[in-house]
Amino acid sequence: MSDREFGGNDDLTLPKATIQKIITEILGDKSGLAFGKDARDLLIECCVEFITLISSEANEIAEKEAKKTIATEHIDKALRELGFPEYVPEVLSVAGEHKEQLRTREKKTSKMEQSGLSEEELLKQQQELFRSATDKYNQGPA
Q1: What is the dihedral of CA 54, 76, 47, 17, to 10 degrees?
Q2: Apex CA 58: angle with CA 53 and CA 60, to 5°?
Q3: What is the pLDDT of residue 62?
Q4: For a tag site, which of 55, 115, 117, 140 has the least CB within 10 Å?
Q5: Average pLDDT, whole number, for the chain?
Q6: Are 58 and 69 in contact (CB under 8 A)?
């Protein structure tokens, strides 16, 4: 199944800079090998095709199970059914790492929390700022 079967969306692509970074990491700076732009573009097309293939299969699996969300187990089954069982351990490992990162990720603190002031103190400051702005407005042009 190609993306052309899904309406031919030519906008499906991956960021070239990200792919180039991955290629550079794999080849290494000291390898002396170069990766041509046309080869990189072909690699991007292959990646998009692979992602589309896996996503479509996982979607079909989820639909058969009457699920509205594609889950990790659907990707697992799709990879196995499409003949890529060797990818499953790495995919599950990365999925587990991602899940753990989400759990342990620091929650962003709000500006209110960062100020170190109580809600009453902040409210008092806000009222003073409003009062000051009103006074300036009522005075008119200087």
Answers
A1: 130
A2: 100
A3: 97
A4: 140
A5: 87
A6: no
Instruction: Collect the ranges in the chain with pLDDT lower than 50.
Output: 1-7
Q: Which pair of structure tokens corresponds to residue 59?
A: 């979607």
Query: What's the burial of 22, exposed, middle or buried (CB within 10 Å: 0-12/13-18/19+)?
Result: middle
Tokens 């005075």, residue located = 139
The candidate with the shortest Cα–Cα distance to 91, out of 50, 122, 60, 128, is: 50
Q: Is 103 left (phi over 0), alpha (psi -120 to 50) or beta?
A: alpha
Contact between residue 79 and residue 88 where contact means Cβ atoms under 8 Å apart? yes
pLDDT value of position 76: 96
Contact present, 47 and 14 (Cβ < 8 Å): yes
pTM of the model: 0.63
